[in-house]
Amino acid sequence: MPAHLQKEARLRALPSPPLEAAKSSAKLAALHARLALTHRLPIETLARCLVDVTADPNPDFNNTSLAHLGRDLYGYYTSEAILCRYPRLPTAVVFAAMSAYVGPQTLTQITKEWGVELVAEPGGEVDPGYLQCKREDSMLVQKRSPDSDDDTAATVAERQPKIVGGANRPNPERTWRRGVSSMTVYDDEFGDLLPGDNNKGRGGGDVTTTTVENACSRFVRAVMGAVYLHRGKHAAKIFFSEHILSRHLNVGSMFDFKQPTRDLSKLCAREGFDSPVARLLSETGRLSRHPVFVVGVFAGRQKLGEGSGASLNEARIRAAARALKGWYLYSPLDVRVPSEAEGPNAKPWKPVLVDIGEVIV
């Protein structure tokens, strides 16, 4: 058999591209330069980040270990940034913000922005610059019911669990006991249930196919883990700030209050403020087809919020909602996160505000 046929047969027998193929890949070199990765991060490591566990089950060649490290780093840096910047956010909104920053959908979009393409079928003869994974046969999009709500922040506590029986949750058959408080203890950083088998997908051969979203998420997390291992904490923090924290997120749009007037009354009573009172500030066109009322909510002499609407009740509800957002979206000046106090030359850590939590009604 000719030498080139023997080489081709040897490559086809491999589940993923060999390491020596990384140095001759133009796509991989372009990705390495596009992400501004220095020579301290070998191009072979970047090629390993592109090998999913479904393509190569050998943990020495896939990105499973790097993805686990990157997921922990993303969760740590994102949570400290959100909690230190908005110390009064409700837990449901924190989960929604975490998902918006480093959730699977966001990481899939980042993969596309980096110019990474998925391979049709993984193998040793494929260019290592492609994302290697075995996709599911039916890539069906989950259909939402007509009465479903798209607001993640409003329905985090009301969602039905995706997997029955969390990895560390007691009494898995009692799904009605799953609330916002238990999510912070037993669930992942997004408030979702952990899979029952902790070893599934950690380099073993029990995972054969995956979705594009999961493969892209593991790739972006693996890159973060590789940057942390090869370049250190400071470079990893810069990489996180440039690719994750730099993305604009409107946290105020994640709120969906069911009864804002009741919540505001409970908040004022808890904080020792005067009971909120709604007062009409201005109006126009009361007897027309399109009236506009401007209502303000006051606690004593202090105005907490202001809202406008086509009716007095609508304006009062909007004013109460804005008052609640003004409280929960409080952000202190000159915020330092705990990771900035790490290192020999770091400034001493100064504790930040820790709020007692959202109003429970």
Give me some keywords for this one.
361 residues; mainly alpha; 3-stranded antiparallel β-sheet; 12 helices; 40% helix; elongated
Structure, explained:
This protein is mainly α. About 11% of the residues have low confidence. It has a 3-stranded antiparallel sheet with strand order 1-2-3, covered by helices on one side. α4 packs across α5. A hairpin with a 2-residue loop joins β2 and β3. The N and C termini lie far apart (77 Å). The longest helix is centred in the N-terminal third of the chain and has 22 residues. The chain is elongated and about 90 Å long.
What is the fold's blueprint, element by element?
Blueprint: H1 3-13, H2 26-34, H3 43-49, H4 64-85, H5 91-102, H6 104-113, H7 152-155, H8 180-186, H9 212-231, H10 233-245, H11 260-271, E1 277-284, E2 292-299, E3 302-309, H12 312-328
Antiparallel strand pairs: 1-2, 2-3
Strand order of the largest sheet: 1-2-3
- Work out the strand percent: 5-15%
Total helices: the number is: 12
Q: Radius of gyration over alpha carbons?
A: 25 Å
Question: SSE order in H/E notation?
Answer: HHHHHHHHHHHEEEH
Low-confidence stretches: 138-166, 197-205
Mean pLDDT: 84
Helix content: 25-40%
Q: What is the number of beta strands?
A: 3
**Given the C-alpha coordinates, what overall shape results?**
elongated
Biggest sheet: strands, sense, closure?
3 strands, antiparallel
**Distance, first to last CA:** 77 Å
Please identify the structural class as seen in this structure.
Answer: mainly alpha
